[in-house]
Structure formats: structure tokens, C-alpha cells
């Protein structure tokens, strides 16, 4: 592409600290260097994200790997009539999910009969919660569940007393802890690997715009490298707080430490996590709609653009 043909990329993502590489790629001019302009929209839920993507409103989608699997298998929370056509371009995050509870909830047993806020009831993060409950000695039906939306809405519903617990990612985990709420457990305690976030595109758009995809990948990877460079730590913290002013200054260090850890946050070079993807498939096979076990992550991937940019294979 030339400077005369700047391409606009429409992105939709969940609110959260993992958006920092995208913020950096915009602020540092890495997308502009690729003759791209970027519009970033934050979604209120996985259902909204899928519906709007299916309607053609977005090109690049930062979403959970399980959402890609769910819609690829006709099990998406938005219903069988909604097909966003997700295909994975590269990895994103390992992602640590935390069970945040009201102050009076001290152990798993205290959640019996309580209401838990989720994004939707048939998503991968819900399956992680069910698995953590089982590991903690609870049955799935020991609690009730309500679809509330993305992490900010879920956290506010617990903070406001509407629900007793929810799952959070950073920065909301640290915000909750600093606000006097409990972090009952974290997914990294029971999982060595879990493919949380991925970078996807609509298949139809991807087929027609390979140059734009590769330009986007180049710009994003520069933003990711900038974010992970220890020399940029202070500037990265300032950028994250500017973009997410709800992060209390006292929580900023713990948010960044989690985000910059490959175990709980951003994956270096945006590589996929094969074992983490298999974990996602195993959980959906166990807790999702009954059918043949899901075992092949490659069905949901098109890494050709990433490999062309990075020389990986």
C-alpha cells in the first residue's frame, strides 16, 4: 500500500488491559506507518460483538478463542442465526480469569445459593468458572447465573450488590481487590495454559483484504513489542491509565505485572498457544452442547498472514 491509499480498519474488542498494544500502535504511529487508520470500539458483551461483526460493522475482532470455536460449531451465544465468521489470525493472551466475590464470600462453599454474573451462560469463560467450581468442591447447580455482559458490567453488578461473584480480567481484578472485594481463585492455579484472547477477522473480509491484514499485523506486533519492552514500562503505564482512568494508581503496578506476564497476560510475538487451545476445546466438549469431542484447533485458524509477516511456519 502507498501513502495515498490509507486503509481504515474497524476493530471491536472487549474492555481491558490487553488492549494496551493496540493503544500503543495507535499512539506510537505504528499503524500510521503502515498507512492504516484504526477505529476501536469496545463491546458490551460477546453477543453484541458477534451480532455487530456478523452485520459487517467490523473487520478485526479481538475476542476469546472459545467464541471463535462456539460460532464455528453453531453453538454461539447469540444463536444459530448469527455467524460472525471468525477466523484466528494470531494469538493474543494467555489470560488469567479471577473469581471476584463480595466481601462476605470467603470460600467456595459460601457461594451456594448465590447469584453469579457472567457474560453469557454458554461461553468459554463460563466453562472456566464451572471447572473452577468443580475443583473447589461446588456443583454447577449450587449457584445461579445471570448474563450481564462484559467485565465492566459484571464487576459493577458485584460491586453494587446485585450479584455475589463474577469472573474478571485485569484491570478489574486489581480494582476489585483494592476496593475490598475478594479474589477467591484464579484460573492460572489450575491451568498451565489457556488460550484466552485471540486476534480474528471476518473470513469474508480477510479473503478480500490480505494486504490490509498483513499491514495490521505488522503494526500490531510493533505495538506489542513496544508494550513488552521494559524500557517503555513507565510510558506504557501512563498510556494504560490515560485510556482506562478507572484504574486506581495504587492498582496500576499489579495490573501491569499481570498484563506483562506471559502466564497471565500478553503472549510474546502474539503466538498461538496450542496446548491452551486444546484446553478450550476440552472445556467446550465437556460443558457445551453435547456432540462429538472437539480436538482440532487448526479448524479455526488461518495463520498464513502472520507467517508471511513474521517468517514463522
UniProtKB/TrEMBL annotation:
GO cellular component: periplasmic space
GO biological process: alkanesulfonate transmembrane transport
Record-linked InterPro entries: SsuA/THI5
Main localization category: periplasm
Entry keyword set: Signal
UniProt domain SsuA/THI5-like: residue ranges: 21-229
Compartments (UniProt record): Periplasm
Family of the protein in this entry: Belongs to the bacterial solute-binding protein SsuA/TauA family.
Protein name from the UniProt record: ABC-type nitrate/sulfonate/bicarbonate transport system substrate-binding protein
Amino acid at each position: 500500500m502507498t501513502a495515498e491509499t490509507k486503509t481504515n480498519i474497524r476493530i471491536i474488542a472487549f474492555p481491558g488491559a490487553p488492549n494496551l498494544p493496540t493503544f500503543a500502535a495507535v499512539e506510537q504511529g505504528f499503524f500510521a506507518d503502515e498507512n492504516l487508520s484504526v477505529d476501536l470500539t469496545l463491546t458490551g458483551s460477546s453477543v453484541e460483538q458477534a451480532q455487530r461483526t456478523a452485520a459487517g460493522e467490523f473487520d478485526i475482532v479481538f475476542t476469546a478463542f472459545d467464541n471463535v470455536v462456539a460460532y464455528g460449531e453453531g453453538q454461539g451465544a447469540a444463536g444459530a442465526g448469527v455467524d460472525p465468521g471468525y477466523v484466528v489470525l494470531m494469538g493474543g493472551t494467555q489470560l488469567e480469569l479471577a473469581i471476584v466475590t463480595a466481601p462476605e464470600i470467603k470460600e467456595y462453599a459460601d457461594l451456594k445459593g448465590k447469584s453469579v454474573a457472567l457474560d453469557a451462560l454458554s461461553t468459554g469463560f463460563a466453562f472456566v468458572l464451572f471447572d473452577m467450581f468443580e475443583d473447589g468442591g461446588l456443583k454447577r447447580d449450587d449457584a445461579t447465573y445471570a448474563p450481564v455482559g462484559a467485565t465492566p458490567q459484571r464487576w459493577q453488578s458485584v460491586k453494587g450488590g446485585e450479584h455475589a461473584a463474577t469472573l474478571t480480567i485485569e484491570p478489574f481484578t486489581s480494582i476489585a481487590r483494592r476496593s475490598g472485594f475478594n479474589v477467591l481463585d484464579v484460573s492460572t492455579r489450575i491451568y498451565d495454559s489457556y488460550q484466552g484472547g485471540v486476534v480474528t477477522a471476518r473470513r469474508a473480509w480477510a479473503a478480500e483484504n490480505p494486504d490490509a491484514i498483513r499491514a495490521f499485523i505488522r503494526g500490531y506486533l510493533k505495538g506489542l513489542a513496544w508494550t513488552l519492552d521494559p524500557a517503555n514500562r513507565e510510558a506504557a503505564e501512563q498510556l494504560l491509565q490515560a485510556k482506562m482512568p478507572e484504574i486506581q494508581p495504587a492498582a496500576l503496578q499489579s495490573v501491569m505485572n499481570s498484563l506483562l506476564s506471559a502466564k497471565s497476560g500478553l503472549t510474546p510475538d502474539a503466538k498461538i498457544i496450542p496446548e491452551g487451545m486444546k484446553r478450550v476445546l476440552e472445556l467446550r466438549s465437556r460443558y457445551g452442547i453435547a456432540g462429538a469431542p472437539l480436538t482440532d484447533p487448526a479448524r479455526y485458524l488461518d495463520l498464513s498472514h502472520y507467517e508471511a509477516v513474521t517468517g514463522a511456519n
